[in-house]
């Protein structure tokens, strides 16, 4: 019977193939007769689909779906072992379309090493409603990591309130990966018993379990054991600390402060930072006061640690709270508040500090003066000058130092009068301050006063201070020094850094523009090899030009190293508001030091041109590797994704969002070392700015921009996560998800979020990796990975 079935099936398949059109009436009749042969036709059909076109395959699959039952299932299952990719796809399609067989037979296939596990998982996913959570859990533990992750994803889709007990009972198992998946599923159920079960995992020795538990708790409402979670702020793992911050902040427990005290006293700096981060979200003046009162009797080093953490890391909420405490009745609280403000250097504190200069406690008064000097606000000058004329000898040195730091010439005359005071400390401080305060017009008279003091004293300290002051004034303002400076100015306008830690950016930019008016503007396009810029940078070659600027390779002749100069185009540099934001962003960007990030050195002004100097990295762009619409090698693509996520995680921790991640901004050398470039450029626009600006350039690249960025909404780290998702999509499929039409059309497609599944474009892609791409590219940023570290961990599991 089998022999005749084979012959008949083979003849019918031959007829169908000869007709060349599966929709032809004769072909349709042949398909019907083929189906009537029954199980005996299945092997020949499986052979046929390996070479059939899409239309023929659809008809064959329809027959297979009709023929599958418990008896024929093993025959089809063999197609998942011996078949070609087309055969495997056809069998999967047929088994997905039919329910006329025992679903447990699919589970049994997972135990066969030779079977295509990814195909079986896809069938199970399609047939998921035929399984129970318990059934799938029983088999998930025995699978390899990819299949295990896929099964737990299906379990997550099936899980409901009735399965919570089953899931929580398995939360303490030995399989770490399974436990993490279970914790992730449980995070969807905002119930007291789930929260309680998750909190039992916070002391687990495995940091991944602690991270997962805290991540789940951060998504839930309801009470948590705040004391326990606050202890996690002292965890040795930084990611655990960060997740603990989220949970504590979300809980909003009124008793949080009493649990934070020990954290803020901890020897570990990162623990103290975590405590302050909580205060930045929840802290009030009452909370800060409570903290300061509790620690005031502790060892001075403990007090210093806590105050130092609050001062260095405290955000606006902490500063506002501390400002209120400047007037507190408790002298110790006032002192601690002043110490904190000394480190915050927050302009909002100026008025309160001015009032504190009159505090009855000399310590508070003196440290308030110091804080005003650190802030450097001109508003403090009148009050500080008034202090110079007072009889408060204890506070005079502090007032002199503060005026020297602020640098207002109004203080010169009253400062000179202090040179007649008998107190040595006051004289020395006044001499040092005058050197800072004077300008070229007053330099001669100030020098004479200082020389007079030095020549009429027998005190060696005062004499030495006077000698050093005169030398410094001569170096700055002598006729020889002035002539040398004028000559240098005529020969070449020196580069002017704008990445200063202190100073008014408006004034710096204004001075730079004024100098440009008196010097010949540099024509970057006309540079020739060997030409020296600013007496330092030897031009080698032009590398490229983009919307934001022209990139050239130079050699720094001072340090004898090559570097990149990126000259900003006029449409960027002439936008005053953008320039301010640009400088602000680059100040932070250049602090990023990581092997996966190009190092920014400086921001210079060169003869009418602004330029960024940065690390030279012989390389090619990631875009150069994605060619001919072919996917990259999977392992390489995933590793590139991991490297980008790693570098971006460091940037995000420094408070920098790239906003223009794309293959052109990812550089790779011959050893596959990857570095991200162009931080600060796209970030220069302010939140809410329209993307097509008045100057006509697009901030961000339409093919890779996050929907919220396109819509002009607030942008955070998750915009970079979206862009990385798009880059991954292109690496693993060979094509970007959206590319048809003009820029506006592409941007609209991102907002709609209807890209083809990466699996549809590249069927050989492992589903877990495809899921990572899809999650990263979610239109709703709340559904994406919430951090680069989270995305990196997912990619590492997929590697």
Automatic annotation (TrEMBL):
UniProt-listed InterPro entries: ARM-like, ARM-type_fold, Atg1-like, Kinase-like_dom_sf, PBS_lyase_HEAT, Prot_kinase_dom, Protein_kinase_ATP_BS, Ser/Thr_kinase_AS
Ligand binding (ATP): 566
PROSITE patterns: PROTEIN_KINASE_ATP, PROTEIN_KINASE_DOM, PROTEIN_KINASE_ST
Keywords annotated in UniProt: ATP-binding, Kinase, Nucleotide-binding, Serine/threonine-protein kinase, Transferase
GO molecular-function term, one example from the UniProt record: protein serine/threonine kinase activity
Domain named Protein kinase: residues: 537-799
EC number of this enzyme: 2.7.11.1
SMART domains recorded: EZ_HEAT, S_TKc
An annotated GO cellular component: cytoplasm
Pfam families assigned to the protein according to its UniProt record, in alphabetical order: HEAT_2, HEAT_PBS, Pkinase
Full protein name: non-specific serine/threonine protein kinase
């Amino acid at each position: 019977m089998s022999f005749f079935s084979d012959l008949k099936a083979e003849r019918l398949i031959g007829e169908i193939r000869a007709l060349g059109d599966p929709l032809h009436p004769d072909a349709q009749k042949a398909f019907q007769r083929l189906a009537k042969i029954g199980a005996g036709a299945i092997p020949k059909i499986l052979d046929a689909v390996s070479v059939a076109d899409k239309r023929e395959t659809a008809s064959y699959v329809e027959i297979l779906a009709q023929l599958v039952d418990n008896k024929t299932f093993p025959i089809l299952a063999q197609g998942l072992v011996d078949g070609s990719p087309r055969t495997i796809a056809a069998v999967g399609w047929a088994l997905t379309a039919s329910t006329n067989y025992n679903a447990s037979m699919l589970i049994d296939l997972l135990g066969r090493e030779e079977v295509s596990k990814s195909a079986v998982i896809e069938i199970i996913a399609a047939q998921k409603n035929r399984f129970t959570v318990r059934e799938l859990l029983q088999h998930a533990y025995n699978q390899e990591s990819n299949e295990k992750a896929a099964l737990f994803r299906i379990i997550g889709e099936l899980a409901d309130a009735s399965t919570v007990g089953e899931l929580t009972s398995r939360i303490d198992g030995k399989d770490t990966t399974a436990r993490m998946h279970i914790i992730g599923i449980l995070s969807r159920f905002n119930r007291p018993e789930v929260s309680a079960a998750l909190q039992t995992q916070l002391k687990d020795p495995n940091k991944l379990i602690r991270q997962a538990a805290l991540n789940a708790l951060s998504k839930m409402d309801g009470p948590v054991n705040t004391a326990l979670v606050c202890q996690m702020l002292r965890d040795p793992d930084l990611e655990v600390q960060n997740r603990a911050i989220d949970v504590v902040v979300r809980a909003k427990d009124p008793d949080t402060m009493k649990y934070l005290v020990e954290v803020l006293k901890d020897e570990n700096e990162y623990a103290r930072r975590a405590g302050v981060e909580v205060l930045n979200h929840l802290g009030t003046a009452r909370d800060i006061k409570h903290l300061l009162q509790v620690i005031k009797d502790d060892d001075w080093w403990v007090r210093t640690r806590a105050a130092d953490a609050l001062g260095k890391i405290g955000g606006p909420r902490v500063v506002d709270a501390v400002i209120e405490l400047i007037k507190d009745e408790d002298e110790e609280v006032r002192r601690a508040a002043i110490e904190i403000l000394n480190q915050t250097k927050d302009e909002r504190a100026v008025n309160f500090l001015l009032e504190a200069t009159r505090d009855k406690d000399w310590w508070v008064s003196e440290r308030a003066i110091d804080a005003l000097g650190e802030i450097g606000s001109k508003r403090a000058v009148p009050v500080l000058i008034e202090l110079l004329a007072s009889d408060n000898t204890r506070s005079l040195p502090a007032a002199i130092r503060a005026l020297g730091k602020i640098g207002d010439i109004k203080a010169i005359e009253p400062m000179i009068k202090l040179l007649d005071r008998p107190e040595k400390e006051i004289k020395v401080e006044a001499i040092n301050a005058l050197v800072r305060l004077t300008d070229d017009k007053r330099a001669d008279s100030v020098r004479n006063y200082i020389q007079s003091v030095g020549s009429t004293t027998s005190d060696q300290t005062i004499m030495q201070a006077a000698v050093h002051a005169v030398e410094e004034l001569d170096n700055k303002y002598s006729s020889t020094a002035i002539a040398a400076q004028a000559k240098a100015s005529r020969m070449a306008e020196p580069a002017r850094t704008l990445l200063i830690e202190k100073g008014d950016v408006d004034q710096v930019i204004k001075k730079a523009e004024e100098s440009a008016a008196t010097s010949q503007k540099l024509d970057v396009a006309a540079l020739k090899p060997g030409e020296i810029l600013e007496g330092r940078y030897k031009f080698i070659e032009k590398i490229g030009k983009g919307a934001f600027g022209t990139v050239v390779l130079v050699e720094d002749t001072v340090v004898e190293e090559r570097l990149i100069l990126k000259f900003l185009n006029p449409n960027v540099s002439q936008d005053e508001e953008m320039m301010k934001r640009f400088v602000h962003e680059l100040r932070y960007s250049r602090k990023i030091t990581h092997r996966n990030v190009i190092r920014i050195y400086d921001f210079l002004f060169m003869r009418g041109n602004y330029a960024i100097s940065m690390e030279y990295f012989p390389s090619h762009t990631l875009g150069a590797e994605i060619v001919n619409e072919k996917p990259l090698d999977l392992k390489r693509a995933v590793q590139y994704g991991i490297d980008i996520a790693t570098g971006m995680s460091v940037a995000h921790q420094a408070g920098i969002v790239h906003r223009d991640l794309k293959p052109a901004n990812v550089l790779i050398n011959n050893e596959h070392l990857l570095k991200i470039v162009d931080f600060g450029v796209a970030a220069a626009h302010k939140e809410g700015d329209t993307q097509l600006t008045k100057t006509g350039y697009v901030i961000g690249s339409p093919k890779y921009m996050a929907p919220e960025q396109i819509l002009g909404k607030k942008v955070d780290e998750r915009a970079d996560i979206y862009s990385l998702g798009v880059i991954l999509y292109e690496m693993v499929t060979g094509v970007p998800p959206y590319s048809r039409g003009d820029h506006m059309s592409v941007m609209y497609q991102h907002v709609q979020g209807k890209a083809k599944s990466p699996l549809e474009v590249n069927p050989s892609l492992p589903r877990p990796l495809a899921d990572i791409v899809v999650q990263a590219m979610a239109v709703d940023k709340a559904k994406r990975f919430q951090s680069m570290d989270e995305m990196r961990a997912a990619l590492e599991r997929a590697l």
